[in-house]
Automatic annotation (TrEMBL):
SUPFAM superfamilies documented for this protein: TTHA0583/YokD-like (SSF110710)
Family listed: Belongs to the UPF0340 family.
Entry protein name: UPF0340 protein bhn_I0673
UniProt xrefs under InterPro entries: Antibiotic_NAT-like, DUF436
Domain of life where this protein originates: Bacteria
Length: 187
């Protein structure tokens, strides 16, 4: 495992997503990550804090530089709760839950790292489908956190480490039928 390469791949992926998704300051970006899949193992079988820290180092600084809020998904043992900064909880009115992510028991490596490294981390059960874009590293199923209309995005990378990635962004619903004219900037 080359942590520098994982950091570089993560940074490249988030930069491409931000460019294509046209996010604005205050939007939410959800991150699901299997450190096991990054290593080429089956999800949930080889939790690795080094690869999680490498992903964090690639993604979180870019989001912060752009004023985008991160929401880091926990594993299914915490019902895919999310680690966010308290500022996000307060701005959006999310409800805090009581759990501390753990790398090998409940939470997962990236959620553990985020909980340790965020300025004022809290765990929320849901972000009420408010994510505007996101990346799923290794098949962690982030869709439940996205707005109701999600558009898959192709970027130049297909994997981070050995983990396949799926990228997505939100777009407003189309209304009005065949007579409607749509704003190309929102598509």
């Amino acid at each position: 495992m080359d942590c520098k390469e994982i950091t570089n791949q993560s940074k490249q992926a988030v930069c491409e997503i931000l460019e294509k998704a046209r996010l604005k300051k205050g939007d939410i970006f959800v991150i699901g990550c299997s450190s096991s899949e990054i290593l080429g193992d089956q999800i949930g079988t080889a939790t690795n804090l080094d690869s999680a820290n490498a992903v964090y180092d690639g993604i979180i600084p870019v989001l912060r530089e752009n004023g985008i809020y991160a929401a880091v998904q926990c594993c299914e043992h915490l019902n895919r709760a999310l680690v966010v900064e308290r500022e996000v909880l307060e701005k959006y009115g999310f409800e805090q839950v009581n759990a501390i992510p753990q790398p090998n028991h409940a939470g997962g490596a990236l959620a553990t790292v985020a909980y340790e490294r965020f300025d004022d981390p809290v765990l929320v059960e849901s972000i009420n489908q408010k994510a505007d874009a996101g990346i799923d590293i290794g098949g962690t199923m982030i869709g439940m956190h996205m707005h109701s209309v999600v558009v898959p995005m192709r970027i130049s990378l297909r994997k981070i480490g050995e983990a396949p990635i799926i990228c997505a962004r939100h777009r407003p619903k189309y209304v009005g039928g065949q007579r409607a004219i749509y704003d190309e900037d929102l598509m």
